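Ticket #4471: structure output looks truncated?

Reporter: J.K.
Steps to reproduce: submitted the chain below (436 residues) through the standard prediction queue, then opened the result file.
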Amino acid sequence: MGEIMKHPDELYPLMKLMLSAKRVEKKTSVWQLQPHWVFCYATLRKVSRSFALVIQQLPSNLRDVVCVYYLVLRALDTVEDDTSLTTEVRVPILKDFYCHLHDPEWHFSCGTMAFKVLMDQFHHVSTAFLELDTDYQEVIKDITKRMGEGMAKFLCKEVGTIDDYNEYCHYAAGLCGLGLSKLFYASGREDLAPESLSISMGLFLQKISIIRDYLEDINEVPKCRMFWPRQIWSKYVNKLEDFKYEENSVKAVQCLNEMVTNVLLHVEDCLVYMSNLRDPSIFQICAIPLVINMGNLMMYYNNVEIFKGVVEMRRGLCAKIIDQTRTMADVYGAFFDFCCIMQSKVDRDDPNATSTLKRLEEILKTCRDSGTLINQRKSYTFSHQPNYNIPVLFVIYIYFTCVECQSETVPQGRGKTVYTPPSGYTEYVVVIVVYV
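Returned output as attached by the reporter:
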């Protein structure tokens, strides 16, 4: 609540997002007569974080496809993530996972919370998969096979070199990006993107996720998970877990900054990929996670809190990004803003400062050269105070107090929750705001 009152410009987009989520729920009521689709869309909202909203705004011929694709890969990831299972158990499941897509009876118990439900009732996902056109099925099956084989490989192999790191991220997310591009192409709504650009999109997102999840992965029970490449972290400490300790905080931040600089290598490919998209809904499903994650990367840079807990973008700022990200000019503008902020955070004594500044300047130049930056545009760097009056802010304050007290949250796994506003509250407050 305090963050919202500090950033009143985020109130309106936050409420628009809530209304949009409720409209999506009503729109998906058509599936209520088909139990497998009821399960897929209900589970999507529980395991996909903010991605669920943009998926459900896709055109009808792609919405079901991307929903199933996401759940299949999330299930595959759940098997990989479950360290309570031995490697000997997980490896064959990962390698053969694609075969089970054609078996509407198959399921495998693993994971926790919403992810366990997904795995225990995976037959619903398989049933939905079998209703898709064969072109879509072949793409999903091929990507699942290749990802499963790659994940199995790295259950038995350390992420030692930067090449290993890139290879692991290729399997864990690069192939996911490639699959999405092929699904977009199969739908007839996009040209087939170059493979290297599709994979770069996935690597960008996966590397940010690996940075964010340092503490959770290193504290994983019964066995820690280590995806930061030894080639990078061994310059600073003897063991990766040493970054948790206060006495190593300077070295931890220096290593973190090198990891962030490595992510920046993929930004220009991402911008090229985005600039080639034509369909507005497909553009949004790619642009929103991209911009939010660039904002997260800016927050992670030079931030020791990564080694102490979860560092995430404000909910209100996420809503603002979703509301404002419509065109390629919006993407260039957001990347320009976040790179400017990151540039201001660079410590000249950091051993990676020169490399970081060089990468940032190259991205800033790309954004400037796009010709889309204008002085009047809305910026994430500076807060624009809206023309709210005191009665409106007071109503908003009461509204959010009610929401915080009465809303439900659904466990996400890996330290995340999905926010669900109480029925009726959003419409009530919007009416009051408009009236005032």
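Triage note (M.O.): checked the attachment and the full token line is present. The CA atoms of residues 2 and 346 lie 28 Å apart.
Status: closed, working as intended.
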